[in-house]
Amino acid sequence: MKATYDSKTDTLSIVLKPDAGVVESDEGKPGVILDYDAQGNLVSLEILDASKRVTEARRMEFETTG
What is the per-residue burial (b if ≥16 Cβ within 10 Å, else e) of 24-60? Predict the structure, then answer.
């Protein structure tokens, strides 16, 4: 999994399956683009105007449990 924030385009991208090919994209909500593979699995998402939609787009915490 990989997350990238591009300050030039103000876009936050989260790739869940980097090796999966995207065959379909859908704008689930305005400014949130969901990408799917051939089996219909979510492989990535992109948040446009990220600085307006998320807190601290330049900072991310990751935690595992169990």
Answer: eeeeeeeeebbbbbeeeeebbbbbeebeeeeeebeee
